[in-house]
Amino acid sequence: xxxxxxxxxxxxxxxxxxxxxxxxxxxxxxxxxxxxxxxxxxxxxxxxxxxxxxxxxxxxxxxxxxxxxxxxxxxxxxxxxxxxxxxxx
Length: 89
What we know:
Layout: H1 3-30, H2 35-64, H3 69-85
C-alpha cells in the first residue's frame, strides 16, 4: 500500500472512531446522562476531529513538498500548536 492510501486509511479509521463517539453522545443525551459527562465526551470528539484536520493538512504538505522533511517540521509544529492553543472559542 502506498503512502497516500495508507494516509487515507488512517483518516477514515479515525473518522469511524469519531462516528462511534458521536453515536455514544447521542445515547448519553437520550438516557439523560450528567451534563458534565456529555460535555467531556463532546470535547473529546471535537479534539479528535481537529486531529483529523491536522493529519489531512500534514498529508497535503507532504504532497506539496515531497522529500523536504526538514522544511516541513516547523510547519507541523505550528499546526500542532494551533490545534492545542488556537482552537478554543
